[in-house]
Amino acid sequence: MKISGTGSVLPKKVVTNDMLAExxxxxxxxxxxxxxxxSRHVISDEKLEDMAIEAAKKALDDAGMTASELDFxxxxxxxxxxITPQLSCIIQGGIGATCPCLDINCACAGFIYALDIAExxxxxxxxxxxxxxxxxxxxxxxxxxxxxxxxxxxDGAGAxxxxxxxxIKGISLSSASATDKLYQIRTLQPTxxxxxEEVDIPLQMKGQDVFKFAVKASxxxxxxxxxxxxxxxxxVDHVLLxxxxxxxxxxxxxxxxxPAEKFPTNIEDHGNSSSSCCPILLxxxxxxxxxxxxDKVVMSAFGAGFVSGAALFEW
Length: 315
Ligand code: UT7
Description:
This protein folds into two domains: 2-165, Thiolase/Chalcone synthase (Peroxisomal Thiolase, Chain A, domain 1); 171-314, Thiolase/Chalcone synthase (Peroxisomal Thiolase, Chain A, domain 1). The protein is globular. Strand 4, helix 4 and strand 5 (101-104) form a beta-alpha-beta unit. It starts with a strand and ends with a strand. Helices cover 32% and strands 24% of the residues. The longest helix has 22 residues, at 207-228. It is an alpha/beta fold. The structure holds oxa(dethia)-CoA. Residues 26, 30-31, 34-35, 108, 147-148, 151, 205, 207-208, 210-211, 214, 244-245, 272, 303 line the site of oxa(dethia)-CoA.
């Protein structure tokens, strides 16, 4: 398969670090050097599904394709207003597609997992055109009085259209159950029979544990996918990493011993938009003309679970 179209959408409300300092015991002096985030786009009156549909339409336009030509839609999403139906079915209706749809929840690594699922369908000869949409609103998961979490996140949707080709060279996935490091719990509807105590807990994070996992997992996934393709980091032109913390990005860069120019970022004014980070960054790089034909691009992401992955492709 190959990536033939990209699109992304951000909410219009921009929240700066100084705006957060108006109601939180925090400051730009703490947030920026510790995370690399200056501002983030936060959902206000938008609906996530509308953003997802718009990102999908942009990617279809970019690929010069109509929704009726799609054979499969995969949506990566952690939370949205609906528990059911799945968001991919809502996107399907919004763009006017008729193909089967699937939602996945692989936290921030969702785009890489979606690529892997798509690749299996290509290898089985079951699809020609696939749409992946990552749509996330992590700002609705955090406690906005908790300065350790809410300052990190922003919202957004990113989409890609895949078509037949051989540009995706390899994908490496890994999972390591560590469910107490990054999680959110919500209550379900009560029944007359529930006797256990249930709690509603906003996003909880053991930041330093996630940090260490992120550096180790992404470094190892990238090394593995490069090795499987008989190349080294020196042969790669661009490394697109999950935009969780600039210090995580720099630590992975140090491990790979590569120059900063190879690592495009948008964390400074986007923050961490979970699985949407990768396709949004991909779309922005593509529209800026950063990728040249034949460039080798590696992407990697990590998230709650823990799950992580890396994908290598040739532009
Ligand atoms: O998609 C994956 C999602 N998550 C991640 O990737 C997160 C990975 N982890 C991180 O990015 C970092 O661990 C954080 C940015 C979350 C935290 O940075 P840190 O250098 O690990 O700080 P810390 O948690 O050790 O906290 C240091 C101090 C604490 O104060 P005390 O206990 O030393 O007095 C915190 O209370 O900084 C305090 N602090 C803050 N102060 C001002 C934590 N958050 C803030 C804040 N503003 N926003």
